[in-house]
Amino acid sequence: MREQPLPERIEKTAISEIETPALLLDPVVMDRNIDRMRAAVASLGVAFRPHVKTAKSLAVVRRMTGGVPGPITVSTLREAEVFADAGYTDILYAVGVTPNKVARAQRLRGRGVDLKLIVDNADAATAIAAAGDPADPLPVLVEVDSDGHRAGVAPSDAAALLGIAARLRGGATLCGLLTHAGASYGATSHAEIRRYADQERDALLSAAAILREAGHPVETLSVGSTPTALFATDLSGITEVRAGVFVFFDLVMAGIDVCRVEDIALSVLASVIAVQPDRGRFLVDAGWSALSRDRGTARQAVDQGYGLVCDATGRPCPDLIVLEANQEHGVVGLRPGSTNILPKVAVGDLVRILPNHACATAGQHAAYRLIDSVRRTVTGSWPRFGGW
Amino acid sequence: MREQPLPERIEKTAISEIETPALLLDPVVMDRNIDRMRAAVASLGVAFRPHVKTAKSLAVVRRMTGGVPGPITVSTLREAEVFADAGYTDILYAVGVTPNKVARAQRLRGRGVDLKLIVDNADAATAIAAAGDPADPLPVLVEVDSDGHRAGVAPSDAAALLGIAARLRGGATLCGLLTHAGASYGATSHAEIRRYADQERDALLSAAAILREAGHPVETLSVGSTPTALFATDLSGITEVRAGVFVFFDLVMAGIDVCRVEDIALSVLASVIAVQPDRGRFLVDAGWSALSRDRGTARQAVDQGYGLVCDATGRPCPDLIVLEANQEHGVVGLRPGSTNILPKVAVGDLVRILPNHACATAGQHAAYRLIDSVRRTVTGSWPRFGGW
User: Fold this and answer.
1) pLDDT tens-place string over residues B182-200
2) Is A54 in contact with A245 (CB distance < 8 Å)?
3) A133 touches chain B (CB under 8 A)
């Protein structure tokens, strides 16, 4: 049984009575997503280190880590500090660290948090080693590039790997390797996702062999992204998997068939401001300040605009999307080329908008409103935080 | 003399010593922008009602209103409440109101705030009139569409105008007309902006004539956008002008020649995480969580990616832009087709990134760090707020 964190505020209001816009979270759907991921990772025989950057919520992450504090991945030192305050002691900061953040990282270690950093170049390694405390050296994972996506050392680049390893002494110490198949978000089949998962594994095994051959200890081999974590079949030699967006899922993940639309746990509740039947559209009170400007589905087969529009119960309206977003206005209409008919709506009607990118949409809000989909009520509220 | 609001926190730190990412605000540039706008509006002989949605900061807006509370425009009731708490009593809520917000608006009026609402359809007018308090009817401006941009009644649509006016009784009362030339953001010349300014004026005068002819009082005629407010030459018959983004300006405004790049008062300070010379790019620690996902210059002649990159002193590096943005990573490189050379940078170097859209970028941060550009110091910090 999973421990149920106490909601910070208990309510029992009909969804139809709350003020809009509001970020709704269905905890039943979320728990199902968490169970699916934890089962997938467990079946691979590796540890799970969920990423907190999507949720930025103690209550949500507590469920991701199985009801008690466990290993987590963070994208900011603020996340590390908030979770350290809540009792999390095994934290991987998975963005290449800059010299101006090392002192703060060191302070977290001084509080008894096993904070680990990542680097992908010798200059950063040198800076960390110089700024870190030799009495409590900062453990560092070297980032490896498994897919040409963003950052990391090429897995076969022995000179770069050994150059970084040589600099990780004094205030820093090498503790492992990390990779993230960000390119898996662009995959078009489960087979392609599996290939990315294999690439993550193989890239780390190659790089580890080079370092171990030279006598460097490489304990942690950390891979992951939501797609590869769910579709990997063999992670032999890997020690841990990271993933974050699976907790809520979103239209980008549905667009590559990593989840179904009904697995998306997050939506933005909005009210109709005006109906413009002659223009085939209506306006809602959720603009980019509520939805974010993320257009992650623009490159996919089905472009969902600024979000797929559902009725107030959460059932998607075919082809109905947010076509344009201003700060506090969303323009809703049918997807270009659609043969569907614009649903009849009236001023004040409620809709729910599914996010392209859960991290970005959640990031626009200060709290999750928890919903009971069966009783159509809001049952509580979980705060979330931002900043660095 | 303008009253100087006390910064909430006084500091004197070298810009090079603060942690990144951080939102920098140059108050000297901001004050110049405010002076320019206030002079432009004064020369037109109309009242100024600045929009607070860009800044969402008491300290900034206090300067926009000339050092004392004055008329303001808001985009959320939260903005209205925060400014009401600070002594602002003349507030226009310039987003079509939904029925679930009327009670809250009425409570603000009960506190002595002259809050005005807008509508552009009979259903919304009916809902406000029904929910409002006949003992203190909600003053309502009818939104008129002057440019086909988003919302509003066509200025010659007598049936629609009179239909709305007829419903504004009981809990609501007609007090004026409003329009916003959002399409002026797409103008390509000052002459075209002037035409939008004329359209704003003419649309309201046409609609006012119809309503006045039928015996309806139309006191307030409210127009505005940053481009039209700055380039209008004749606002005869108009009573007030609204504008917001001018306070900071941004690359979208520079792209239509409404300001110069050096008039942009806002930038995001970021550190170099990694240099990838073979790929002609480097990574910084400002991703979309610091920059926003706004791509407002994508449709302009010069696409600035996710922002134009400057050196640490704020001088733009020719053709250097943020090509891609992940949550906490920005990928910086030369604009496609550029013949410039990638500047030499090292890990830990600082850059400043100018925003496409000031409202969106500022919205990602909890505070403005005030800078002294001459001494290259951070001199204080002004909080900002979000939410609804």
Assistant:
1) 899 999 999 999 999 999 9
2) yes
3) no
